[in-house]
Design goal:
18 helices, single chain, 22% strand, 2 domains, alpha/beta, seven-stranded mixed sheet, TIM Barrel
Length: 581
Amino acid sequence: MRLEGVLGVSYDLVVKNGTVVDGTGLPRYKADVGVKGGKIVAKGNLKANGATVIDAAGKMVAPGFVDIHTHYDGQILWDPLLTCSPWHGVTTVVMGNCGFTLAPCKPQDRDYITEMFAKVEGIDMKALKLGLDWKWQSYPEYLKRIQQERIAINVATMIGHSALRRYVIGPEASDRPSKPDEVKKMKALVQEALNAGAFGFTTSLSPTHYGFDGKPVPSRLSTHDEVLELVEPMADHHVGSVEIITETAVMGADRFSDADKQLMTEIALRTGRPVNWNELSHNWDHPMKWKLQMAYMEEASRQGAQVFAVARCQRLDSVFNLRSSNIAFERWATWKETFNLPPAQIAARLKDPKARAALKAEASEPIKLGGRMRTMGELELVRSTTGKHKQYQGLTLGEVSKRLGKDVLDAMFDIALEENLETEFAVTGLRNGDMEAVAEILRSPYSIAGISDAGAHTNRLSGSNYSTFLLSHWVRKHHLITLEEAVRRLSFVPASIYGMWDRGLIREGLNADIVIFDAEKVAPLPTERFNDFPGGETRLGNRAEGVDYLIVNGQVAFKNGDHTGAFPGKVAKSTDYKFTA
């Protein structure tokens, strides 16, 4: 097909005059890219021959990015664009992570599963209850349900451990280990999911994961032996990955436990498939933990096990306003009392000189936030909701107060009062506060660029901008890695870990999933609050600049961040990647 294309076969689409960054990590080069029937069919100096032409002069032409850690399981039913991911160059997302999936699920467990998503993944409860139609019970039925949706980008799914345990064991799944016959039933359901097209098995053993009922999520009650039993069907599947949060991966320990290391290594060796765990990042509470975690992955590699970490590209901030969501300051009695009042009463207190003085006195000393001591002046003004104070966005409250000639908290309170208490502030650097550590993490051969957590924690965080942050902050601003290497880590590496051999590269015969961007402009835009969830519920998100075109399966889905009206996305199935003799 490549030769015929060069000699004059007609194309559906030709990307002309661009600089190809093909996903291999090799140096960029000038070439046109020809697309036909949803596939890349030619590269070189091509004639359009009547095809639609995109002039990519001065722009980078790269494979669409693959985000392997998302939680769009519910959002796909009310947001066919799967925003915010496509705004940042993502053409394929993998959902069903951390053991949290909407299937399998019995009718009597729907409230529990909904509440689990709301509690652990921070997805708005009202939006979930309005947006989920529950036209499924089994995992294959859920796959068929989402295939009925017109979607803008591609989706791959996995089977979650907590959903499995609840389905088989019932309410006791959060109270006890499984019995042998229950493991046998769960294992059969894993096999059923893989046969239907799941790309793997996911679980969480994290001590931070609790359900709405205050009990541990079901997967936390499993033994390592149970996990090893449930992943065994992956050995014959030859596609996909096992995603896991181990007990000592994130919180509460300064290194992986020996048991966690043994578990991940054994999973990889038994299944013959890569394990990916999350998240690898710098944490002020355990500032050297990331080094020990990277040393473990190198050790596992020497044993023949493929173990990779989803590495956080961006700094993790926690966004809040003075109208709600002030958990960080509840350790101060006056703050806790004040900011649990109705908004009108909060405003009245902030206007009262005596009440304001009490709040200021209580916050006069540094407080431990995000693992280190901080002053209130270190908090950042993220967004002026009215736009009146837009010039202060991205500045610390200390910097804002100097410009206004006010005390730090007077500046904070006065601006908030002018904006109906909706001005958004942030505790910055909860993770990845040490940029030198982040640099080493992102250079590691065992790290996968991430973590977006897209679709989750929508009222506090927005991580789907990880790709444009990597390209703008680490590539363009700090020259940490080359553009070619960044694109490889955003496309070919995650696609390869999941066995998606038809994407991740600009190569003839592969899917025409392509992102065209301006390397000098690409960047995430400031966090916004959107009112587009079911019931008018809100969420945080980021748009991007410098992403000119997003092509999915050969069709232009987005142009300059705007949806074109096309829905070329597909629900990918792992069974489509299995070779038979």
